[in-house]
Specification:
Low-confidence stretches: none
Mean pLDDT: 85
CATH class: Mainly Alpha
CATH topology: Growth Hormone, Chain: A
Oligomer: single chain
Number of helices: 9
Radius of gyration: 19 Å
Structural class: mainly alpha
Largest sheet: none
Distance between the termini: 41 Å
CATH architecture: Up-down Bundle
Length: 252
């Protein structure tokens, strides 16, 4: 297997685990939170929505920064640091003694999950013009698999306890970190590296690029609306089915 093929395989697994980490909390987090608020599902729903929002906000804020850091120091170290941090964070979430620790854990998870941008940059580095479309199709496949497996794994393992999925995710992510240490080559040559500039790491400044490319503004709005509707459904589904039908985590 060539180095680029090994790298793409690793990125595929990493992206699946990143998206799985987003979905794995969907079925288990409401029950975990309700245990901290005396079983009050109404109060738990407020916390649940806030924790989901915090995770997404951290991804928005840190994705450009991690991307720029990888432009400066290479893709490999940033990806491996993010994976190590994600594995430790899952353990923190599994052992969280209260709501404050859950919030902190999801903040860290959002930061490490922002490494998706670095994974996509890695694919761009190693793709030839003839293979670029095919390789980015792999990225889309990884997202789809992660979105399918995340809630399913969370629900099945959550039947054993709301903290069990976090332990499983910690082990899987840790094994992937070890795999990356052994097989992942660096994709960005020293000649192509760029200095880190804080202004370019600002997520709000990147939005100004939309003004230069009018065609992107419509696509951005479309993707925003698609993501919004998906998150609304995911956020209320578990709360609704638990409250109205009394379904367990396995059945959700």
């Amino acid at each position: 297997m060539s180095k680029s093929a090994a790298g793409i395989r690793f990125i595929f697994i990493t992206l699946v685990l990143d998206i799985l980490g987003m979905g794995i909390v969907i079925p288990i987090m409401p029950e975990l939170i309700s245990g901290f608020v005396g079983g009050d599902i109404s109060n738990a729903s407020w916390w649940y929505g806030g924790i989901i929002a915090v995770y997404a906000a951290m991804q928005f804020l840190f994705a450009p920064a991690l991307g720029r850091l990888s432009d400066r120091y290479g893709r490999r170290p940033i990806l491996l640091i993010a994976l190590a941090g994600a594995s430790l964070d899952y353990l923190l979430l599994a052992l969280a003694p209260g709501l404050a620790w859950l919030v902190i854990g999801r903040i860290i998870a959002g930061i490490t999950g922002a490494s998706i941008s670095v994974g996509v940059a890695y694919i761009a580095d190693v793709s030839t013009p003839e293979k670029r479309t095919q390789n980015f199709g792999i990225v889309g496949a990884a997202f789809g698999i992660g979105f399918v497996l995340g809630p399913m794994v969370g629900g099945l393992l959550g039947g054993l306890g709301p903290r069990v999925p976090f332990y499983a995710a910690a082990v899987l992510t840790g094994l992937n970190w070890l795999y990356g240490m052994l097989v992942l080559p660096e994709s960005l040559t020293p000649a192509n590296r760029q200095p880190f500039v804080w202004r370019q790491a600002n997520p709000f400044s990147t939005l100004t690029l939309l003004g230069r490319y009018p065609g992107l503004r419509g696509l951005t709005v479309i993707f925003l609306l698609i993501g919004l509707t998906q998150q609304i459904l995911q956020s209320v589904w578990v709360l609704s089915t638990m409250h109205r039908f009394g379904l367990s985590l396995i059945h959700i």
